[in-house]
Amino acid sequence: MCARYVITSPPDAIRALFGYRELPNFPARYNVAPTQPISIVRLLEGKQSFALMRWGLIPAWVKDPKKFSLLVNARGESVLDKPAFRNAMQRRRCLIPADGFYDWRDGMPRRPYYVHPKKPGAPLALAGLWETWTGPNGEEVDTAVIVTTQANRKLAPIHDRMPVIVAPEAFDLWLDCANIDATTAAALMTPAPEDSLECYEVSTAVNRVANDDAHLIEPATPAPAGAIEPANTAAKPKTPDGQLSLF
């Protein structure tokens, strides 16, 4: 799964990769969390377009969002059939720019890891879906979700899920909902090549949503020599602040 990510590339670099027309200016973010505004790229009138949406999908048919579970991730295996995602998979696919993402390895305590491209300066395109929810008074809320797949062998020891990462040559295949059907696009929902990513443990400071600076992606300080590792237990550890367990 993916419930925190990083976007630090300059806006011009993101724009050059995704080819949208808009000229957004956004700051580096080291701890993007659910319910916050996120950058997405979608196809409008045949052209790639930038937009800001809330992270946490609300399907159009939801009556009261307060009574609906926050959907931060969508399992790729079920997006073609699950009612919450089916329509968006057919008509509203998007890409979510990122420079890396965090995941937590089970244990006591849970340990955060930072995953990023092995090639420096190569932002990722995470597969996403978006929806516009319209309230009873006509208010509209644009929301998005990150699609996940099984982790590759490099990341599996940390977590059994990872975001779907779309290669630049497949952007059109994922975004063009008018000409590419959902079943064809679903072929992209595979684990990223193992040699394309690197990962390392980082500080538990990332557990707090309020923390958002470059120190979060620095490698964790090694434990002192002779330190005893806390024993793993069968009890489910406390979920970090803002890290949502959805599936």
Characterise the protein shown here.
There is one protein chain. Helices cover 11% and strands 31% of the residues. With 247 residues, the protein is mostly beta strands. It is globular and about 50 Å long. It has a single domain (5-211), classed as hypothetical protein yedk fold (Alpha-Beta Complex), CATH 3.90.1680. Mean pLDDT is 90; it is low at 224-247. The protein has four helices and twelve strands; from the N terminus they run βαββββαββββββααβ. The longest helix is centred in the middle third of the chain and has 9 residues, at 83-91.
Topology:
Layout: E1 5-7, H1 11-18, E2 29-32, E3 37-44, E4 47-55, E5 73-75, H2 83-91, E6 93-98, E7 100-105, E8 111-117, E9 124-134, E10 140-150, E11 161-163, H3 171-175, H4 182-185, E12 197-201
Which tags fit this structure?
mainly beta; disordered C terminus; 4 helices; hypothetical protein yedk fold; 247 residues; globular; 11% helix
How many strands in all? 12
Helix content: 10-25%
Please indicate the percent range of residues in DSSP E strands (runs of 2 or more): 25-35%
| Biggest sheet details | 7 strands, mixed
Give a short overview.
The protein has helices spanning 11-18, 83-91, 171-175, 182-185, and strands at 5-7, 29-32, 37-44, 47-55, 73-75, 93-98, 100-105, 111-117, 124-134, 140-150, 161-163, 197-201. With 247 residues, the protein is mainly β.
